[in-house]
Every structure is written in C-alpha cells, then in structure tokens.
Amino acid sequence: MSQPNSSTPWPRWSWDASSHPDPVTVTVTVTVTVTVTVTVTVTGSVALVRESVMQDQPSGAGKVTADQLRRGAYLYVRQSSLKQVVNNTESTQRQYALRGRAIALGWGEGQITVIDTDQGQSGASAAGRDGFQLLVSEVSLGRAGIVLGLEVSRLARNNTDWHRLLEICAMTGTLILDEDGLYDPRSFNDRLVLGLKGTMSEAELHLLKARLRGGQLSKARRGELKQCLPIGYVHDPLDRIVKDPDAAVRGAVERVFTLFAASGSARQVVIAFAADQLSFPARIRTGAHKGELVWGPLKHWRVLNMLHNPCYAGAFVYGRKRSGRTPEGKTTLSDVPREQWTALIEDHHEGYLSFEQWEDNGRLLLSNATGRGEGSKAGPPREGPALLQGLVICGKCGRRMTVGYRLHRGELLPDYRCMTHAIQDGARICERLPGKALDAAVARLVLGALTPLAIDAALKVTDQLTARAAEADQLRASHVKRAQHHADLARRRYLAVDPDNRLVADALEADWNRALREVTEAKDTYERAKSEAAPLEAAVRDRLGTLAADVHRLWADADTPMRERKRIARLLITDVTLTRTDQITAQIRLSAGQHHTLNLPMPLAGGKVWKTPAATVDLIDQLLEDHTHREIAAILNARGHASGKGQPFTALLVRNIRDVYHLTHRYDRLRARGLLSFTEYADAIGVSETTVKIWRRTGLIHGIAYNDKNCYLFHPPGPDHPAPEVAQGIRLSDRIAAQQAALSAESRRSAV
What we know:
This protein is of the alpha+beta class.
C-alpha cells in the first residue's frame, strides 16, 4: 500500500506474507478532517506492525494510565505582573488552550480544574502564591492525575519549589505536561529533563534580573534613573525633577521645614499642624487612583521621612534602602549606611533647603533620639529602673505605654506614658503616670507570690495533680491490657484455623497484625504520658522550697542588675493595665491566669511633695499657745519632726508655716486672754513704761513673751502689784530685798 501524496502523513503499515496463508481483510480508519474507510484484501499471511501514531495524538500518550484518568487534571495559569496580564494576552490564551491537550489525552471537560488565582504574582517564590500552594496540596492528596503548564517558569522559577513539586508528583504518580511534551516524574529520563528545565528557568530569571539591575545602576550613577519622588516634587515632560507646580503642596512642604528649623522637634511640627488644623498632601502610590493627590492630617512618621530624605536638599540618591525577604516571603527594607549608597549627587535639582541644612537636621534628630537631657544619659544603658518596661498597657486607649525618665534629687525616676496618639497626630499625651510607687507595689506582689507559703501551696497543688496523673496512668495501663488481650485472642484464632483454608487464615492474620499494632500504639502512648507526668523528684522539691529565699536575696542585693529583676517579673507577669482617676488602678495579669488589682494613691506633684505634714501643722498650732517660734522649733526638733523637705525646723520656718496655714498669731492669742501691753500696764498702775520695763527686768513683775524680740505682754495688775507711792525714795536694791523677804515669810507661814 502506498502513501497518498498529501501534506498530512498517513499511518505506515508493513506485511509479512510468510505467516498466514489465508486472505485477510483489514479495515483502517484514518481521521483527518473526515473519516475515511479503506478496505484492503491481501492474499497471503499478514502481520500488522504499527510504527507511528496520528499527528494530532499527543506525544507520550502511552504514559497515561486509567488510574490517572480517574483523577483530575489541573491547569496552572500565571503571569508575573498585572501589566503582563493586561498587555500580554496571547500568552494567557496559550495557557488556557492547554485544556485541549488534556481532553485529547482522555480527561473529560468536567475533570479539568483551572487555577488562575496567581495572576500578577512572581514565580520567584511560593510565598504569597495561594494558587500554587493549592496545586501542591491537591497533588500531595493524590487528587491530580496530571499538572498542565505552558512551561516550567509558569509553575516555579525557584529550584526549591520546583523540585518539591516534582518529588510530590513522583510519589503520587502525577504527570506533568508543558508545551513541549508529557513527562512522568517517576521516569529517570523525564525527571532529568524536568530538572534541567527548572535550572534553566531559574537561571533565566537571574539573567533577566541582572540585566535590569545593571541598567538601573548605570542610570543611577549618572543621576538619570527615574524614581518615585516624595511629595513636593514631580517629573516634567523631559523627566527632570522639579518642584510641584501646585502652590499649596509647595507651601505645606516648606512649612514643615520652617517649623522644624524653629522648634528642632518633629513632634512639635505635628503639634503645630494639628493646632492650626492644617492638612498635608500625599499621593496615592498604587491602584486605580495612582498619582492622585489627597490631603489628610500630618503624621509623625511622614515628618521624619521628609527630614531624612536628601531629595529635599536637591540631591539625587540611590541605594539608601536594602530590600530583603523574611522566611514567610515578605519583603523588608533596612537602612544602608551613607558610605555604602550607590549614588549621591548633590545639587542635582532645586531643593527646599541646602544640603548643609539637611545634614544639620539629621544631627539634630540623632541628638533628640539619644536621650532627653543629661539625666537620661547618666543611667545605665538598657537597664533603666522601670520594672514594668514593656509590660504596661494604657487602660484608656489600650495601646502599649512607653517609659520616660526624669532626674529628681539625684535619683532617676520612671514615668509610664501613652505616646502613640500624641506622636502620630500631634495630640496631647493620652496618659502619664509616675512609676516609682507602682514599681514598688508590683515588686511586693511579685515577691509575695514567691513566699515559702506560696511554694508550699504550689507543692500541694502539684501533689494533687500527681494523684490525678496516677489515676490517668491506671486508665492508660488498663487500655494497654485490653489491647494485649485482643491481640492474644486474635493470635489464638489464627493458630486454631486450618492452614489449608488460606482465605480465612489470611483474614485472621490481618486481624492479628492489626491488634499487635494497637498494642504497640497503646504502649507508646502510655510510656510517653508517663514520662511527661513524672512526679517531682525529691531534690527538685527541696530546691523549689528554697527558691523563695533565693529570689528575695537576689532581689534585695544591691549588685543585682535591674535587668535581672525585670526578668524575674516577666516570669510571673503577663501585662499590667493602668487606669488613672483620683487614684492609680493597676490590673495585673499573671502568667498562671490569676488577676490582681492594686489601688494606689496619686503621688503628690510639684511643691505638694514638700508640704509640711498635717500632724506637724496641728502641733505647731497647739504650741503657739505657750511658746514663741524659736521655742517651737526647738521642741519639734527634739521630738524628731522634720520639714517637708526633710530639714530641721527653724524659727523662720515655723513663722512661714504659721502664715501659710493662717494660724492665729501668738500676740493675738495672748491679747484674747486679756494680757496688757507695756503702755496699758503702766497706765493701770500709774507709772511710766520705763518703770514697767525695769520692774519686769528686775523680777518685780512677770511678763509673757509673744515673739523672739523681747516683746512682752502682762497679766492685769492684781492686789499685790508694786505700789508706786511706797516705792518712791527707796533704792531699787532695797525694794528687791524687801520683796524677797516678804516672799520668804509668806513661804514659812504656808509651811506652818
């Protein structure tokens, strides 16, 4: 039989007439565009040997098995970017056209699953490609009979992901089809070809990236690379960097740099914008509205980005950031030191400030971040005295609170502050609470949780748990015995069966093997649970009993770093929520699930800390009845009282306290009791004031001092007061002697 003269090849056949003497009628059906039936009658023996298949039958059709045809066919469609999806439509159509190849190999239309959820995703990694991960899971579950992709690079451009897919396909017997042919990963030759294709695909991606990267670096070193510009700059028709033609945008950017030059603080810039109710522009970077201008509140992070960006100083910069990937496949950016930047070209375009001003701003920001004042710099690095650093949550807004330090009388005191809203939006600080008293209260709680009584309670609880574990151990042991009993029964049944009855013997042997596996699993579970629930050894229990004393001694040791105290606290405390009303409420959540609430009084602020105690003020009020300021100061010091600043009392301090608290003057107190002044006493007797002073000085009359300057008041004259007419003409010494003699005589009469 000869082949017709046609562009479409016909099947070729050969005959061997030596085998069959009888005539044979052969019917051959060839399908091209129509069905043609050819009947050939040959006299003699015919041996039919087919040498080729029709051209439209897929290459490698003999690799497809009935088991694979019962499973599904998965067509994976991917383009690396959304731009390719929109513009390179021919590639997408070619990928979808592979459905016909699957149908030609024997899969039905309903068996074909198209996975095209990774459109616009790079094939450099499996991270973020949900469609590829779905494909791998379906293959690993044995649901896929064939995986179709236009080429290897559509499935993966990473050898790790590609060979993992090949390994899973080989284990599940899944075929792989691309534009070149059909491959069975279980076959060495096919596996070798697929591995080479994967290597070439990864190398192709590397070469493409290297070419693009080389062109970028070359243009960047010349300052001609077109980059995404910060707000305030745009590209003109010649791709040159110019200031934004919008005057409002330029004014907002200039105001940021003006305010920072005046205040020296990025946060003050945000506060000024918020106080003036000013908005700040921004451009949308992605999406359908890419490039559009929007206005909103100025954020702190945006101010920092502007101050750190040398583009605003008229410089062209490339290589300030270095990109990387996390194990989850997320892209990260890290700062690169200035000396490692790829390009830095000064005076490249018009700037909003000079390059020297930009450098000064950077140094000022660095000094602001170093610390707040000399007091903060004096503290040990990373070991501040704040015990609850990183554990405090604001009870007002729920955000994490930060720590600030202030120097007070040579002591570094912590303050817990909720600063997120204040920093980002320029608003007031959400909450600020002093931390010294709070840290002391929490420290007492932590140490109290580690007392010997608490350790004993923990041991008792441990004993109860051990008893419960023993009960569970008995249950697991009974389960092992039951499984062993079933295995023994299965063994006896197997040994009792007639060996010639192989059908029954095989079934009983399978039951015996299954029972033995159950025994093994039960024993493994029992041993594992027993080891995990082992009771505390005696040495461990003794060590646990001495733990409380060790922790207290470690905490009180002055040489213990604050870092170690914080670690001890974090072993017990999960977080602390602070709420400020007329007092400080601290809700402490422990790691064991317990909760404690502490109510602390608000510490006195400012001069209130130095106020004299109320009890001392009351005592001064009482002493003013009978003592002067100097006498009161001596009495207070003798009784151990001190001022609000911890200093000893003086007459001046007592007088100030009397005036501040509006205590009644001693003079007014004595006058209210009816005492007379010098003039009033002299008028009552009929002598001069000088005579009264002499009488008081010589002891004829008794005066009561109302201050420390020899100022006196006198009781009204009684019947025994000195008589002026008697005293006239008698020497003062004689009058004093006569008065003393009269007093002695009166004393003797009283004694009798």
